[in-house]
Amino acid sequence: MNYVLEVKSLVKKYQEVTAVDQISFAVPQGICFGLLGPNGAGKTTTIEMMEGIVKPTCGEVFRFGQSDQQGKRGNKAIYNQLGIQFQHTALQDYLTVNETLQLFGDLYPNTMNRDDLIAVCSLSDILDQPHDKLSGGQKQRLLLALALINDPNVIFLDEPTTGLDPSARRQFWDLIGTVKALNKTIILTTHYMDEAQALCDDIVIMDKGQIIAHDSPDALLAANFEGALIRLPSKSLSDIDTAQFNLSHNNGFVDIVAEQVEVVIKQLIELGVSLDGLQVKTPNLDDLFLKLTGMQLESVEGKNV
Questions:
Q1: What pLDDT, on a 0 to 100 scale, did the predictor assign at position 299?
Q2: pLDDT in tens, 102-138
Q3: Within a domain: 119
Q4: Is residue 243 part of a domain?
Q5: Tens of pLDDT, residues 228-237
Q6: Do both 259 and 211 map to the same domain?
Q7: DSSP 3-state assignment of 217?
Q8: Is residue 68 part of a domain?
Q9: Alpha helices (runs of H) in the chain, residue ranges in sequence order
Q10: 79 within some domain
Q11: What pLDDT was estimated at residue 303?
C-alpha cells in the first residue's frame, strides 16, 4: 500500500522530558486519521514533526515516500502538498475574510479555486466581515480555508474544535466531511472522543508519549468490549464482593462490562445492590480510553505537548 505519511520509530526529547517515545504508524491516502490523547500525551509534538516544523530527536517521517533524512528537508514540492490549521494563528489586522483569503492565496504558486474554497468552508455569508469580529466557529471555518488555500493533498488539523460550542463543533465536523470527500487526507488531533468516533477512519491513541492503541474506532471497541456497559454510583457496590464482575472505576461511578445485560442486572439485584442511578450504554472511545489508562480523557488537563 502507498502511504502519504509514515512515522518510523519517532522520538522527541526536551532535555529530561521525552515527549514522544518510539512511535510508528502509516497513513494511506484519503482517510481521516486521528491522533488522540489527553493534553501532554505527545499529540501536538507528533503532528509538528509530521508537518516538518519540529525536528525529531531520532526516527524518520516519510512524506509521500520521501524522508527528511534522505536529504529532502525543505523540498518545496513536498511541503506545498501540505496544509496546516494550527491551534493558534495570528492574522493580519484590519482585513476582511475575503482580503485575508487574497493575502494568503498570493503566497502560493497554485491555489484552490476561490469559489470552490468559499463553498467548501461555508464562507459566503462572512466574506465582508473583519476577521477579528468573527465568532469562534466562523474563525475556525476561515482557518480551515487558509489550510486548504494551496489545494494540499494532506491537511493537518490540530484540535480545531477546542473551545467551540456544541453547535459550532458539529458544523465543523460537516466541513471536515466535505473536505474528506475531495479525497484529501486529514490528520486530526483531538481530545474529544465523540469527535474522533464521528470523523476518523483510523486512530492512534497516545498516552505519555507512547501509542497505547491503534486501529479503526469500531475495531478497537470490538476488541475491548463485549456487550454493553452498566454504570452505577460507586457507593452502590461499596459493600459487596465485585470480583465476579468485569468492572472499572470512573469518577464516582463503576462501569461493568456486560455481555448479557439482563443476567448482570439480575445478579446485582440478588446481591441487594441498589439500582438507583443505573445507566446502560453502548461503549464509546471515551470508555475505551478510561479502560486503557484509568483516566477520563476530556477531564484531563495539563501541558500541551
A1: 44
A2: 999 999 989 999 999 999 999 999 999 999 999 999 9
A3: yes
A4: yes
A5: 999 999 999 9
A6: no
A7: helix
A8: yes
A9: 43-51, 76-79, 97-105, 114-120, 136-148, 166-180, 193-199, 217-224, 261-270, 285-293
A10: yes
A11: 44
Q: How many CB atoms lie within 10 A of CB 296?
A: 15
| Segment 52-100, tens digit of pLDDT | 999 999 999 999 988 876 554 457 788 889 999 987 788 999 999 999 9
In the numeric block, the cell 502560493 is attached to 108
Opening angle at CA 256, ends 194 and 244, nearest 5? 155
- For the entire predicted model, the pTM comes to 0.84
- Residues 304, 190: Cα–Cα separation, whole Å: 12
Phi, psi of 94 (to 5 degrees): 70, 20
The pair phi, psi for residue 84, each rounded to 5°, is -130, 130
- DSSP-assigned letters across all residues of 228-242: EEEEEEGGGGTTS--
Listed residue (74, 72, 3) closest to 33, CA to CA: 3
In which domain, by residue range, is 134 found?
A: 3-216
269 and 235: one domain?
Answer: yes
Q: Are residues 206 and 259 in the same domain?
A: no
Residue 166, amino acid:
P
162, three cell numbers: 477546542
Residue 230 and residue 209 share a domain: no
